[in-house]
Amino acid sequence: MSAPAPSERTLTASSIDDAKLKSAISKAARHLMPMLVILYFVAFLDRTNVGFAQAALKADRGVSDAAFALGAGIFFIGYAIFEVPSNLLLKRFGARFWLARISITWGIVAAAFAFTSNDVMFNVLRFLLGVTEAGLFPGVIMFLSEWFPNKVRVQMFAIFYLAQPFSQMIGAPMSGGLISFGDSLGFARGWQVMFFGEGILAILAGIAALFLLTNSPAKAKFLDDDEKLALSNAMAVEDHARNQDGPKGIWAAMANWKVWYFTVIYFALQIAVYGTTFYLPQEVAGLLGKKVGWEVGLVSAIPWLVGLFACYFLGRAAHTVARRRNWGTLLYIGTGLFIVGSAWAGMTNQPLLGIVFITLAVASFLAVGPITWAYPTSFLTGAAAAAGIGLINSLGNLGGFVAPLMRTAFNSAMPTTSGAWGVISLGVFAFLGALMMFLTKFFRTAKSDELLDEPVMHH
Fold first, then answer.
1. Of the ranges 6-20, 187-201, 435-449, which one carries the lowest mean pLDDT score?
2. How far is CA 378 from the centre of its chain?
3. Using one digit for the tens of pLDDT, what is the confidence trace for 402-433?
4. Of 98, 202, 213, 341, which is the most buried if we count CB atoms within 10 A?
5. Would you say 23 and 182 are in contact if contact means Cβ atoms under 8 Å apart?
């Protein structure tokens, strides 16, 4: 390990009070994480609730299967185009204001789905949902990398990621329940009530974020002066390390080979995530032989409940470079194997086994997400982080655009009653992610990863 710069040595050795640093991290987690989880909870809910409305939109508004597949994916085109600009604007205006703005505007668009009248309007609204939500996820990843040192960052990413299983566990029965409730009202359709109600939730979450988020440790009213100093100094040490071996500035980050490397890994992950998520209600309905509603919503929540525990506990324990690499590789392999297993169970008509495999696939891809984000945040800082994290997330998320189209194409080319080949195509990309994660073994260690072994951050 190279000798630290004088300022770094001083901070590492004496200026950072370990007890105060731990206290500051603990307080920051308590004050910031619940609001961030709520924002992502509502975002994920509004992004994936179309799965519950597919049959009703087809029956009531004539939205075809092809239009639905395009709409499910076109969200990610708007998302990809505006992701990097949104992240740069977050850097300029501050996370508190910008994350609130994102939530309020996408809530308005999400509520507007209640008025969908045809294929074109459905696709336009899906595109606009992507545009308005762009920047939320990478903005939070960047925000957390400015608040939490490397040693605990994967743990914080994992807590943030819990919004995904929560949104599916609580959101799946909630979406199904709102549809059932709306259908009983008489003056509206159930799917309209679901879209409108869940859109309003996002608007309320955005307003709350304005009051509950704080841009930086230095401005945090919930920290005392010693805690502010300890946390600010710890982050300064890391920034110094990241500045030494990471790209400088926006264009350097977007041209950096490592940024593109992790973009490919994230793309492979998102194909598995969205290929599974979009079709989960229909798959469970098929396995149970029931219509999408309350019961299907309840069973659809099971994989996310298991995933919640996997995500949290593995994220907590992944605090060394070797653990992140080894577990990351194994979890990508698991994701691929379990997705292929679920296809096999569908082909051989074994519904219980199918649900077990889907559950294990969801647990694997949820747990590997926070570990994957540890890599780019270990060498990106400042404007380079805004651009690099935005690029990885925007292009990686195009996996969400490719997944439904690829799944449909494979099912058309090689039709089976269970649609097995479409599912298998999703799993193959996870194996590519596993190989690329393993090959990080041969990368030069990022300087901020070397800090993982410094005594300051040991818990």
1. 6-20
2. 18
3. 887 888 788 778 776 666 787 788 888 899 99
4. 202
5. no
Residue with tokens 């780019």: 376
Residue 323 identity: R
- Judge whether 114 and 196 are in contact, CB under 8 Å: yes
- Give the residue, 1 or 425, on which the prediction is more confident: 425
SS (H, E, C) the chain: CCCCCHHHHHHHHHHCCHHHHHHHHHHHHHHHHHHHHHHHHHHHHHHHCHHHHHHHHHHHHCCCHHHHHHHHHHHHHHHHHHHHHHHHHHHHHCHHHHHHHHHHHHHHHHHHHHHCCCHHHHHHHHHHHHHHHCCHHHHHHHHHHHHCCHHHHHHHHHHHHCHHHHHHHCHHHHHHHHHHHHHHHCCCCHHHHHHHHHHHHHHHHHHHHHHHCCCCHHHCCCCCHHHHHHHHHHHHHHHHHHHHHCCCCHHHHHHCHHHHHHHHHHHHHHHHHHHHHCCHHHHHHHHHCCCCCHHHHHHHHHHHHHHHHHHHHHHHHCCCHHHHHHHHHHHHHHHHHHHHHHHHHHHCCCHHHHHHHHHHHHHHHHHHHHHHHHCHHHCCCHHHHHHHHHHHHHHHCCHHHHHHHHHHHHHHHCCCCCCHHHHHHHHHHHHHHHHHHHHHHHCCCCHHHHHHHCHHHCC
Residues in the chain: 459
pLDDT band at 447 (very low <50, low <70, confident <90, very high): low
Terminus-to-terminus CA distance in the chain, angstroms?
22
| Cα radius of gyration rounded to whole Å, the chain | 22
The predicted model gives 374-384 an average pLDDT of: 80
Residue predicted with more confidence, 8 or 370: 370
Q: What is the amino acid identity at position 285?
A: A
CB 352 within 8 A of CB 299: no
393-to-103, 138, 177 alpha-carbon distances in Å: 18, 6, 32
Residue 57: phi and psi, rounded to 5, are -65, -35
What is the distance between the alpha carbons of residues 230 and 162, in angstroms, rounded to a whole number? 28
Tokens of 254: 């977007």
